[in-house]
Design a protein that fits this description.
The protein has 4 helices and no strands. The protein is mainly alpha-helical. The radius of gyration is 17 Å and the shape is elongated. The two termini are about 20 Å apart. The mean pLDDT is about 90.
């Protein structure tokens, strides 16, 4: 007996997995660069800023992949909403960093890391591959 709901196409799933993993790596890089900056490596602030732009761009691509998972991929819609929520959270994070609101910037960064890790784990463990 076959299920009436088919799994999303494999290329959509792999795109989302790859982008979520790359975004998570960028977020981890942000934490490492921030930690090195606050311990005295002041030149790494520019790296932190540049990596933030790159990582945020990856998140927009993740959002596109999550939308493709949902429509036309016939997958769940919540990953698109979760990715959109992360875009909003990271936007606030960037603004807080630019305004030097570290009391807000640090905890939001921790939340982004945790949410991104859970999202990436979900793409690798629970998201099923469909046909080509």
């Amino acid at each position: 007996m076959t299920s009436s709901i088919s799994a999303p196409p494999g290329w959509v799933v792999w795109s989302l997995r790859t982008l979520a993993t790359a975004h998570l790596a960028g977020v981890l890089g942000q934490a490492a660069l921030a930690g090195l900056f606050v311990t005295g490596e002041v030149d790494l602030l520019e790296w932190h800023r540049n990596n933030a732009g790159f990582t945020h761009s990856l998140l927009y691509l993740q959002l596109v992949a999550a939308i493709l998972l949902w429509r036309p991929g016939r997958g769940p819609g919540w990953p698109a909403l979760a990715s959109l929520g992360l875009v909003a959270l990271e936007t606030v994070q960037v603004m807080a960093g630019q305004d030097r609101l570290l009391g807000l910037h640090f905890p939001i960064g921790m939340a982004i890391f945790g949410l991104s890790a859970v999202f990436t784990l979900w793409t690798c463990r629970a998201l099923q591959l469909g046909a080509a």
